[in-house]
Specification:
single chain, about 130 residues, mainly beta, 2 domains, three-stranded antiparallel sheet, about 0% helix, rod-shaped
Length: about 130
């Protein structure tokens, strides 16, 4: 029936469904849809398959803290802030002596140290997050 509409696409992950309209007995394009995109390592489900960052974030194997202390004994999953949003990350070994414990941006990391030496445009650390 001409003028009839129906939902199209998906609302999974970062995707949003759109609307198709019937014109001349043919369903038109999906208007307003946010379609799947290439998966990125950004804490989001870009390809809308129901899995976040599946297969795109390469990190060394998980490990316990072995760098001699300053990380306050943190092991396993820890929390931090990245690009203004709250994320949870798993500790992992950078090399045999350093354990990364928080990510503050894609380019700046906070290592397990007493002063949390935040890099980039940060002035300090509050509850394990760069500020």
């Amino acid at each position: 029936v001409d003028g009839q509409t129906k939902s199209c696409g998906t609302d999974t992950g970062e995707c949003q469904s759109g609307t198709q309209t019937c014109t001349g007995g043919i369903w038109g394009a999906c208007v307003g849809e946010v379609a799947p995109a290439t998966e990125l390592c950004d804490g989001r489900d870009n390809d809308c398959d129901g899995e976040v960052d599946n297969g795109v974030c390469s990190q060394p194997d998980s490990c316990n803290e072995t760098d001699g202390g300053y990380g306050f004994g943190l092991k396993g999953t820890v929390s931090g802030f990245k690009d203004g949003e709250y994320y949870t990350y798993i500790d992992y070994c950078v090399d045999s002596s350093i354990l990364k414990e928080y990510f503050c941006t894609m380019s700046a990391s906070v290592y397990g140290s007493l002063d949390f030496a935040c890099a980039g445009n940060f002035t300090g650390c509050v509850d394990g997050a760069c500020t």
